[in-house]
């Protein structure tokens, strides 16, 4: 479709005209401008909603909202074209078969071997070994070999040694969807563990001997402690309501030596609405400070993030400080349980705060334990009530921790944003389907590529320059402040206003430091080469003239500690380096270096909406975002005056 | 007056000091004329706390049996608690602190007693003279002149003795204009934009009154800053209604009929007690220690503090936009021209002028646009957020300015030579200091108090190399561009470095700062090494050639 206008959300004045293309996998908008011809690519799988608005004189507006928080506002001249685009997109954005998804057609030009290597990058067996199991207390169980006991669990599962197959099967019959207690994290230092399950089918009075034995076995696997915590991550009211349906929670009287604890994290429906409310605030055209803060508070989003974090902190404390094992569950044990177990693991074990470890963590607590990626993130057309930003919340928890512990994580914010992007993009096979079983049936590993290999290949872009493996923050357990520190939880504009570059800091400290570190590395290499050359020269000259070489030794020492400003590498060069960096632009650069995922044709959704220089966008922000507006300057003079003043808003 | 008279109990033992995020420490408390000193001599943890009495904003006392507790709330927003055994000692100490922290005579303040332990390399009192500023200006334009019309502070008591005005306006005209402007604050040059020769002037409101008085000299003065055929903007920091009401009290605004070349824009900036209330509410919210602090965001919102920040930044950006983008000259004023006017003109300079983003340049800006321009520091900063005295002239005007600078700094972290600590330092010293810099309300008062002779300047201390190094931003790279900050709510954040400074764990953030410094330092060292080696190798190679020739 030609002559389509792409509107800038912040200013109706700044629109670009171009051509809209629909392909099998992408919506592509190409600007008409002769020199730049900037392109905006959006994957169909990223589209979360399409809204056709009332036709106006200029054309028919089409609003596309994406799951990665991009909002695209198009105006199509002909109503009929608009309707066609709308109908096609509705169909394209809601695939019904897995085979329609992008990952089955995406080809990064890797051979078969490289693909297989890619899938081997994250190996859960290796991970359990790293944790220290199997050992005297824990063993691998093959009870779920053919998904016979629980179809949403993986085949390989770690259970206490004293839990026989009989106990496991018995316990599984007493748990929602047969998700029996299994090991999520084992703490080598003190034998304490984090186990996970679904809710027990206790109703008002039902008991199950095998389930009681199962919990007993978990306690015995930690000989240093005489009880375990059972953490129900639901609000108490929700858990009680479940009893009427024959489900519920553990009765402390029936289980020996457990301490039962509710931690009120709301369910997926509350979270979905909360995100919706927050996004509405983000989308406000020019909110006042009050609109924004009120909206953010009313959405409840940060409160929910804090609840998840508090649960994680509680568990991490129990394991690290008290040495007590914890069994975590919610209803089905695949949403809140996954969030809480992974936050706790992240706090407990520095390994998960490395790039590789973080991939392992997601693979372990989310992918292998049957988090329903397909349902939650709407990859295939399905029940909209199943959709909820569960893993988004976990990713945000990590970001909040990164803000509090800037040196503790090996990866940077961009890493998190790209993972979030690909959970929805369906470009890689990792997050397809709802369980391991379904993925095996689809032969994901033979037919698609792994995201982890892709991220690993580009790991230089995702490094946190402040991370040092020997830094105190990278050792041991993280202890975030819990007490009265609500104010430590901040709005993440880097994620939710990700595509509005104008709102972000114009210079990125991370990118700057990364460029400096890169240069440092080059300098180190050069230094080595130079020293070698020097040694060779000295050797060859020392025979000639001993006195002379002595002098040179002295001059060398002198040289090492003198700095000279007029040297070849003046700081000016950093800014040139910076320009080539993919993310946010430094001040000197122009703004069109958006978040780039394009290394291998992944033009999925990089919105280069802002072609303007820093200065332009600065002015822009100012005039259309201020409540009273640079544009409508109140003055006692009549229309003439305000007409004239409008140019200030330009 | 002898301070000793006020100190009934100069010393108390076995006092316990409580601070957030610190273990309680036991030690000895001493009171001197200007300080509260707490020292603990425990072997594992010897430490001393020195607190200026003038830093104390409020003090509360309570008793449990004979154990007294006093809670001291400081102007830098810190709160400490002292447990003092013995009711009498506690009462004495509390009343002494109260008396010593509210001395009403300026000359009894600590700066008049402070004897520096460092060698003065450069006297800060003469570091930033307007004459030097004018010299710089003269190198790019000759349209301006220095006027000494206010030599004896006779024309305008709140102006410095010398000011910069358009060359074509003589002193006689200035005297007439002064009579037409509130408090005699006639329009003077605030900033000259080299790039396009546009000027930013500041003044107070014109005294048009209800009958629309005019002053030909005033019109001539401000028109002198316009290029022929071009227009200028008057940015009035009051809403139109307030400006109109001001006419009833003799004030007013520039009427279009008399200033046809000027376009007036009203950009409302909140002032006085509204700001003070915001400040108090915000600090209250930040100090709320209750565990279920659910409504943090609504408390933040209710304080309106960030709204003021947003308004102020927007007004400053607008002024900068008029000058840089529209190529127009600008006149900024509110009512008196000593508060919101100065906020706008100084922030606009941060945006426009790279020099103001250096340490030295920022100091010069504070001196020029705040101290010399007659911002009444002593009135505005007499009390901070904990005080019960609700004087209507107290307002965190300067703090708001510093926070706006911080907001811009956060968006352009590589464009400022100074770091956040420097801004915090200025906040502290504006409220309580051993230096005389922020005493008095204007240059005239400072001259009468003989501050340059009798007290030490903050700049004499800060500009020593060993102090300066603490305030340098390791990421700084001179950026010659105009920097346009975003004023969207998503882009503005609470200034944690001031408001949460004492109630957040800061260790991890400090470690990160250290790491940043180390990365840059190591890089610079390597550069030096590599270059030295390169040079050495080059020398050896040429030597080798010489030898070979021999």
Through-space gap between termini of chain A: 29 Å
Q: Report the top-level CATH class of the largest domain in chain B.
A: Alpha Beta
Write down the overall mean pLDDT of chain A: 81
CA-atom Rg of chain A in angstroms: 28 Å
Structure class of chain A:
alpha+beta
Greatest contact pair?
A: A-B, 108 and 94 residues
**CATH-defined fold name of the largest domain in chain B:** Protein-Tyrosine Phosphatase, Chain A
Amino- and carboxy-terminal Cα gap of chain B: 86 Å
Global morphology of chain B:
globular
Helical segment count of chain B: 20
> What structural class results from the helix and strand content of chain B?
alpha+beta
Strand percent estimate of chain A: 5-15%
**Which strand order do you get reading across the main beta sheet of chain A?**
4-3-2-1-7-6-5
**Uncertain residue segments of chain B:** none
Radius of gyration of chain B (Å): 26 Å
Major pleated sheet of chain A: 7 strands, antiparallel
Q: What fraction of residues of chain B sit in β-strands? A: 15-25%
DSSP strand count of chain B: 14
Number of domains of chain B: 2
Family (chain B): Belongs to the protein-tyrosine phosphatase family. Non-receptor class myotubularin subfamily.
Domain Myotubularin phosphatase (chain B): 124-499
GO biological process, one term (chain B): phosphatidylinositol dephosphorylation
Subcellular location (chain B): Cell projection, Ruffle membrane; Cytoplasm, Perinuclear region; Endoplasmic reticulum
């Amino acid at each position: 479709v030609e002559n389509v206008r792409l509107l800038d959300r912040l200013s109706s004045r700044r629109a670009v005209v171009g051509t809209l293309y629909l392909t099998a996998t992408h919506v592509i908008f190409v600007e008409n401008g002769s020199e730049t011809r900037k392109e905006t690519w959006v994957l169909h799988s990223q589209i979360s909603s399409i809204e056709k608005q009332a036709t106006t004189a200029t054309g028919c507006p089409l609003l596309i909202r994406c799951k990665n928080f991009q909002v695209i506002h198009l105006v199509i001249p002909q109503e009929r074209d608009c309707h066609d685009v709308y109908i096609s997109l509705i169909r394209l954005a809601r695939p019904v078969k897995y085979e329609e998804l992008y990952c089955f057609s995406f080809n990064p030009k890797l051979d078969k071997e490289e693909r297989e290597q890619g899938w081997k990058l994250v190996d859960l067996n290796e991970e359990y070994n790293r944790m220290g199991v199997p050992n005297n207390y824990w063993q691998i169980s093959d009870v779920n070999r053919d998904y016979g006991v629980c179809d949403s669990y993986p085949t390989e599962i770690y259970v206490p040694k004293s839990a026989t197959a009989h106990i496991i099967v018995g316990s599984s019959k007493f748990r929602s969807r047969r998700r029996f207690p299994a090991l999520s994290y084992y703490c080598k230092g003190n034998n304490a563990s984090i186990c996970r399950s679904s809710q027990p089918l206790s109703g008002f009075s039902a008991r199950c001997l095998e389930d009681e034995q199962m919990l007993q076995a978990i306690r015995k696997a930690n000989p240093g402690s005489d009880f375990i915590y059972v953490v129900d991550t639901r609000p108490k009211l929700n858990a009680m309501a479940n009893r009427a349906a024959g489900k519920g929670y553990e009765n402390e009287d029936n289980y020996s030596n457990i301490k039962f604890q509710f931690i009120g994290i709301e369910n997926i429906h509350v979270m979905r609405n909360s995100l919706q409310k927050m996004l509405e605030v983000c989308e406000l055209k020019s909110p006042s400070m009050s609109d924004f803060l009120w909206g953010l508070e009313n959405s409840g989003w940060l409160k929910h993030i804090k609840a998840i974090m508090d649960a994680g902190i509680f568990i991490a404390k129990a394991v690290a400080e008290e040495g007590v094992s914890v069994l975590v569950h919610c209803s089905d044990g695949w949403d809140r349980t996954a969030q809480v177990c992974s936050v706790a693991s992240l706090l407990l074990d520095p390994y998960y705060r490395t790039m590789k470890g973080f991939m392992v963590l997601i693979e372990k607590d989310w992918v292998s334990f049957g988090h329903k990626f397909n349902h939650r993130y709407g990859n295939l057309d399905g029940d909209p009530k199943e959709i909820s930003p569960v893993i988004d919340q976990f990713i945000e928890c990590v970001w909040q921790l990164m803000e509090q512990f800037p040196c503790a994580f090996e990866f940077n914010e961009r890493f998190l944003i790209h993972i979030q992007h690909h959970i929805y993009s369906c470009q890689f096979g990792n997050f397809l389907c709802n369980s391991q079983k379904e993925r095996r049936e689809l032969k994901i590993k033979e037919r698609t590529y792994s995201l982890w290999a892709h991220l690993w290949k580009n790991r230089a872009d995702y490094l946190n320059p402040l991370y040092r493996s020997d830094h105190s923050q990278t050792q041991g357990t993280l202890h975030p402040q819990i007490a009265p520190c609500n104010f430590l939880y901040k709005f993440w504009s880097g994620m939710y206003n990700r595509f509005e570059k104008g709102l972000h800091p114009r210079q990125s400290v991370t990118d700057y430091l990364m460029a400096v570190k890169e240069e440092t590395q080059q300098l180190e290499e050069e230094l080595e080469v130079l020293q070698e050359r020097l040694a060779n020269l000295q050797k060859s000259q020392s025979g000639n003239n001993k006195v002379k070489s002595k002098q040179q030794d002295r001059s060398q020492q002198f040289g090492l500690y003198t700095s000279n400003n007029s040297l070849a590498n003046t700081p000016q060069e950093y800014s040139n380096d910076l320009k080539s960096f993919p993310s946010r632009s430094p001040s000197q650069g122009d703004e069109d270096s958006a978040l780039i995922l394009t290394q291998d044709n992944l033009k999925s959704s990089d919105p280069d909406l802002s072609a303007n220089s820093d200065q332009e966008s600065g002015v822009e922000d100012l005039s259309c975002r201020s409540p009273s507006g640079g544009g409508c300057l109140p003055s006692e003079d009549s229309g003439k005056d305000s007409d004239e003043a409008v140019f200030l808003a330009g | 007056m002898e301070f000793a008279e006020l100190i009934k109990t100069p010393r108390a033992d076995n006092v316990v000091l409580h601070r957030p995020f610190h273990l309680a420490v036991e030690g000895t408390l001493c009171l001197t004329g200007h300080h509260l000193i707490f020292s603990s001599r425990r072997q594992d943890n010897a430490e001393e706390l020195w607190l200026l009495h003038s830093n104390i904003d409020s003090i509360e006392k309570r008793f449990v049996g004979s154990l007294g507790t006093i809670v001291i709330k400081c102007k830098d927003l810190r709160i400490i608690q002292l447990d003092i055994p013995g009711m009498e000692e506690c009462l004495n100490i509390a009343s002494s602190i109260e008396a010593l922290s509210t001395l009403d005579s300026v000359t009894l303040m600590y700066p008049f007693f402070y004897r520096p332990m460092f060698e003065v390399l450069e006297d800060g009192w003469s570091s930033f003279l307007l004459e030097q500023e004018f010299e710089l200006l003269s190198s790019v334009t000759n349209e301006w002149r220095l006027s000494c019309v206010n030599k004896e502070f006779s024309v305008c008591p709140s102006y410095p003795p010398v000011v910069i005005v358009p060359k074509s306006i003589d002193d006689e005209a200035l005297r007439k204009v002064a009579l037409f402007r509130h408090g005699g604050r006639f329009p003077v040059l605030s900033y000259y934009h080299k790039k396009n020769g546009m000027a930013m002037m500041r003044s107070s409101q014109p005294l048009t009154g209800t009958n629309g008085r005019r002053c030909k000299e005033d019109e001539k003065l401000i028109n002198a800053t316009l290029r022929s055929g071009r227009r200028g903007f008057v940015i009035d920091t009051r809403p139109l209604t307030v400006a109109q009401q001001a006419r009833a009290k003799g004030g007013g605004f520039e009427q279009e009929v008399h200033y046809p070349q000027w376009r007036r824009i009203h950009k409302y900036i909140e002032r006085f007690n509204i700001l003070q209330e915001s400040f108090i509410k915000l600090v209250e919210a930040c100090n709320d220690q209750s565990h279920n602090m659910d409504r943090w965001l609504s408390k933040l919102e209710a304080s309106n503090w960030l709204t003021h920040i947003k308004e102020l930044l927007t007004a400053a950006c607008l002024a900068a936009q008029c000058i840089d983008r529209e190529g127009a000259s600008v006149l900024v004023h509110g009512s008196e021209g000593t508060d919101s006017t100065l906020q706008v003109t100084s922030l606009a300079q941060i945006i426009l002028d790279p020099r103001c983003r250096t340490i030295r340049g920022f100091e010069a800006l504070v001196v020029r646009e705040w101290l010399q321009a007659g911002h009444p520091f002593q009135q505005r900063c007499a009390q901070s957020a904990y005080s019960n005295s609700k004087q209507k002239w107290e307002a965190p005007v300067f703090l708001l300015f510093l926070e706006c600078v911080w907001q811009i700094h956060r968006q352009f972290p590589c464009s400022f030579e100074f770091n956040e600590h420097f801004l915090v330092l200025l906040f502290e010293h504006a409220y309580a200091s051993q230096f005389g810099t922020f005493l008095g309300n204007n240059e005239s008062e400072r001259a009468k108090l003989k501050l340059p002779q009798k007290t030490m300047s903050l700049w004499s201390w800060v500009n020593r190399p060993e102090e300066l190094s603490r305030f340098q931003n390791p990421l700084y790279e001179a950026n010659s561009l105009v920097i346009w900050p975003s004023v969207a709510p998503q882009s503005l954040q609470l200034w944690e470095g001031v408001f949460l400074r004492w109630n957040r764990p800061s260790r991890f953030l400090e470690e990160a700062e250290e790491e940043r410094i180390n990365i840059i330092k190591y890089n610079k060292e390597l550069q030096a090494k590599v270059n030295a080696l390169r040079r050495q190798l080059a020398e050896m190679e040429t030597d080798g050639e010489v030898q070979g020739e021999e």
